[in-house]
User: Which sequence fits this backbone?
């Protein structure tokens, strides 16, 4: 998979204000900023994002996805 394809899947699966994905073709890292993540634990946030790429994870097309998740307010506070 390409990082752009993963970004597209995440954006199609949830409302995001910012998504960036980087990786080497098998292992990827994503930063996801979404108001949908407000009030959720770290595990719940990761589960929500994984829902958007579940088919690719289940098929093995996407091997590993490391996540950093933020609400828009948390993202803004990072400077």
Assistant:
């Amino acid at each position: 998979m390409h990082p752009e394809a993963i970004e597209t899947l995440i954006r199609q699966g949830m409302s995001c204000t910012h998504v960036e994905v980087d990786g080497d073709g098998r292992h990827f890292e994503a930063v996801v900023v979404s108001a949908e993540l407000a009030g959720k634990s770290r595990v719940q946030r990761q589960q929500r994002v994984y829902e958007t790429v579940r088919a690719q994870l289940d098929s093995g097309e996407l091997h590993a996805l490391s996540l950093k998740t933020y609400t828009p307010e948390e993202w803004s506070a990072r400077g």
Residues 12 and 52 are 8 Å apart (CA to CA). The helical segments are 3-13, 42-52, 54-59, 72-77. The chain has one domain: 3-74.
